[in-house]
Amino acid sequence: MKITTLFPVLATTALIALGAPALAEGTTADPAKGPNVNTAATGTKGAVATMAMAQDLYALGMANKDALTVLTAAKLAASVDVKDVDRKKETKGDAIADQSDGVDAPMDAAAMMASAKELAGEDEVLSGLIEDAEAEGSRGRIGGASETLSRLPAGQTDVWEIPFYGDSYAELAVVGDGDANLDVLVTDENGNTICYDVSWSDKVYCDFVPSWNGYFYVTVQNNGGSRNSYYLMTN
């Protein structure tokens, strides 16, 4: 599917569905301005990037049946302290009939560790490394990440409304369970595209620095054949 045909529709859907938000006190947003990104500003990747990397490594490790890669993913996931939060969301579209439910949520650190054990088999060196990682546990965990779970049927689209402060580094990620392709678009309140992804993946990471306090819309479309349970993560 071409980006030029998919995402203008999604962006319009997001803005029409949610309308113009009432911005937080102190905003300098103006309908004539945009995009809401300070291209000269940078930031340091944090807990959201770490978790997104963990999910990518886990998928790579499982595809290659590589216990060490999966273990590395598990250790990264275990290093992040994530808080569950509620967020504003609207779901649109008609679900495809007779689709499978898939799994209930993406892999967490414990499930990744279990996969690493299974792949390690009777390899004593790898088994020792896994035991050491389990003994270390979650000491020194990185905070600052929040997540919201959505179980999105094939054929439907979630539109999330997320506030970010101006001149503050913003991170977000969509982390799917691997059951179906998710296409993702991030726009500002003016409809300008901030990030987009139409690859055959369900894992997307996006970071930027807003120029002013404002709302951003994260549009997630399930273009697969089964339900995808994914986390929307932000810092």
Characteristics of this structure?
235 residues, alpha+beta, five-stranded mixed β-sheet, five-stranded antiparallel β-sheet, 5 helices, 10 strands, 30% helix
Explain this structure:
The chain is of the alpha+beta class and 235 residues long. It is built from five helices and ten strands, in the order αααββααββββββββ. It has helices at residues 3-18, 47-64, 67-78, 109-120, 124-136, and strands at residues 80-84, 88-92, 142-152, 157-164, 170-175, 182-188, 193-197, 203-208, 214-222, 228-234. The protein has a five-stranded mixed β-sheet. Strands 2-4-9-6-7 form a five-stranded antiparallel β-sheet, covered by helices on one side. The radius of gyration is 19 Å and the shape is globular.
Radius of gyration: 19 Å
Order of helices and strands: HHHEEHHEEEEEEEE
Overall SS class: alpha+beta
Uncertain segments are 1-27
Share of helix, binned: 25-40%
| Dominant shape | globular
Tally the beta strands. Answer: 10
What fraction of the residues are assigned to beta strands by DSSP? Answer: 25-35%
- Total helical elements: 5
Order of strands in the sheet with the most strands?
Answer: 1-3-10-5-8
**How would you state the average pLDDT, rounded?**
85
> CA-to-CA gap between the ends?
30 Å
The major beta sheet can be summarized as: 5 strands, mixed
Chain-wise SSE layout:
Blueprint: H1 3-18, H2 47-64, H3 67-78, E1 80-84, E2 88-92, H4 109-120, H5 124-136, E3 142-152, E4 157-164, E5 170-175, E6 182-188, E7 193-197, E8 203-208, E9 214-222, E10 228-234
Parallel strand pairs: 1-3
Antiparallel strand pairs: 2-4, 3-10, 4-9, 5-8, 5-10, 6-7, 6-9
Helix pairs in contact: 2-3, 3-4, 3-5, 4-5
